[in-house]
Amino acid sequence: MATRYLFYSHDGYGLGHIRRNTLIARAVLDTDREARVSLVTGLAVRPRWLRPSSRVRVHRVPPMLKGTDGSYRHESLSFEDAVRRREQVFAQLVTDERPDVVVVDRHPYGTAGELRLGLAAARSAGATLVLGLRDVLDEPAVVREEMTGLGWAGVEDVYDDVLVYGRRHLVDHEAEYGLPLPPTYCGWVVEQVRPGRTRDNLLVVSAGGGGDGAAVFELGARLLADLPELRGLFAPGPYADLEALRLATRLTPRRARIARHTEACGRWFSRADAILCMAGYNSTLEALAAGQRPILVPRRAPRREQAIRAGRLAALGLADVVDEGADPSEVAWLLQQPRPLPTGALADAGIDLDGAEHAAHRLHALTGARSAR
After folding, report:
1. 3-state DSSP assignment of residue 49
2. Can you tell me whether residue 133 is helix, strand or coil?
3. What pLDDT was estimated at residue 360?
């Protein structure tokens, strides 16, 4: 009988949660030809890489967007109604599909506890429950406080394993965050794109989902205006203000191109001479996978996740970091430095980009152990 996997991601303004789940699901399907996957997402848009197929079903729940204060909201439903609808969809999927494995990204019980009912039902039916966490969550003191709250209560009795999509030497989730059960470190989950032929002086500017990327796009536009030898490609993300981006690049219309938001950045990064981006999980790892030392412009609120990731990668010699309000001349100097990573730089720094495959193998092992019991 085919093994059934159910992946849940709450999703906010970024794409990282569902992107990681999608890449791990692909790896699961590659290593188990009989497996079937359901992806549950709150992502309101439909990127090209998130498509249903004969073995993959995509289910939508009401999208919850994160505000500048860190709180979540729905554009038209009340918060309570959106959470209730999410709870109903997830619980019904557990009942209908009877998954063998449930993988939840980031929040153990969902944004506001909407997964508790479905998780209890899945566990009672014998499913393996797995929590997935990115490499950096936030400032350690903030995460420690979060893990003492109701949103993490009893996690060690509910979940069979925690997969960390990174390595211990970058962030030790037990030592820094007080994670209540020992995790499995899988390495980073990223799509690996074969490096392409670089284009003459191509600067690729990206801000993940784009909802909070105005400062990065503005900095990229100012660089194009100051450096006539540059050509720019802007990867806006689904939540970017396209009109504002067009205005920002109005002085260099022949040297600036805006890519479609439905495409992943990896293919553009592989052709870039330089990359300017925020320090979110997806953008940063896709830049490293393309063999580039990115210039990172991390967001510092409402979470310090990006600033921490950027600083630690810079300490490993894998990235340069500038503030959102950096003068273009500072970035121009960095553009004159070698941007490709030296051969073996990632391996020397302990950065493993095979996280999706490692996660898939761990899920298979957990399922096998549960079946044997």
Report:
1. coil
2. strand
3. 97
C-alpha 112: how far from chain center: 20
H-helix or E-strand spanning residue 92: helix 79-97
Cα dihedral angle (117, 138, 313, 233), rounded to 10 degrees?
A: 80
Report which of 232, 234, 236 is spatially closest to residue 261, judged by C-alpha positions. Answer: 236
Q: Is the peptide bond before 302 cis (omega within 30 degrees of 0)?
A: yes
3 state DSSP class of 230: coil
CA distance 181 to 71: 27
Encoding tokens for residue 208?
């993940």
Are the beta carbons of 355 and 26 closer than 8 angstroms? no
- Enumerate residues 6+ apart whose C-beta is below 8 A from 74: 62, 63, 64, 65, 81, 82
Q: Look at residue 325 in the predicted model and tell me its pLDDT.
A: 86
pLDDT of amino acid 242: 82
3-class secondary structure, 134: strand
- β-sheet bridge partners, residue 231: 202
Indicate the helix (H) or strand (E) that contains 157: helix 155-158
Supply the pLDDT for residue 369.
63
Identify the bridge partners of residue 163 per DSSP, sorted by sequence position. 132, 184
DSSP secondary structure of 21-59:
HHHHHHHHHHH-TT-EEEEEE--SS--TT----SSEEEE
Give the sign of the dihedral formed by CA 356, CA 14, CA 196, CA 22.
positive
**Could you tell me if 206 and 177 are in contact, meaning their C-beta atoms sit under 8 angstroms apart?**
no
Give residue-wise pLDDT tens across range 153-200: 999 999 999 999 999 999 999 999 999 999 999 999 999 877 666 667
CA nearest 138: which of 355, 293, 304, 327?
304
State which residues of the chain have pLDDT below 70.
12-14, 66-71, 195-199, 210, 261-263, 369-373
- Distance (Å, whole) CA 188 – CA 347: 12
Convert the pLDDT of each residue in 272-320 to its tens digit: 999 999 999 999 999 999 999 999 999 988 889 999 999 999 999 999 9
Q: Which has the closest alpha carbon to 211: 8, 2, 11, 3?
A: 11
Contacts (Cβ under 8 Å, ≥6 apart) of 258: 233, 234, 236, 242, 245, 246, 249
- Reading phi first (left if > 0) and then psi (alpha if -120 to 50, else beta), residue 199 is in beta
Residue 184 three-state SS: strand
Take residue 370 and report the two structure tokens written for it.
Answer: 């549960």
